[in-house]
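Changelog-adjacent note: as of this version, every example in the card shows the full chain rather than a window. The one below runs 154 residues end to end.
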Amino acid sequence: MLQQKLQEFPKAVWVQMYRDRMQIINHQGQVEHTILPIQKYDHPRTILANFEAAEMTLKQLIKMKKLPWYDPAPILFLQIKEELEGGITFVENRALRELGYNAGSRNVLIFDHQGQCLNTEEQAKQPVFIGTIYSKIILIIVIVLILFIVKFMN
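Full-length structure tokens:
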């Protein structure tokens, strides 16, 4: 499922979350960036016990990824690499999605350690902000308007 989504969204940012680190993985499966948290965010029963510490760690990690200036809010694939007893609860899933949104992502998909999507159908239907094609069109229109204004000012 994860590999299929990576092909569907080639500009998505793939983050693997462990109890003691987070890392960005490129679409070929190689580690690009790894960050260790300044403050622990896990607990023996859950991977996300300290939301603020995890949010700060994820924000710093996403900053390491050089995102284009015209599309700074990526689609985030957050893969939980720890096998949690009983799986991830709905509350943990929601907290992980909120973590991604607070870190600056426009859409967040949660995956388990095997790459299976944990988002429900209702969560997947949430509206996605302006896509990359639309952002490029808007950028072109803005540039043309600026050039038009500059030409008539001279």
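Structural remarks: The longest helix spans residues 132-153.
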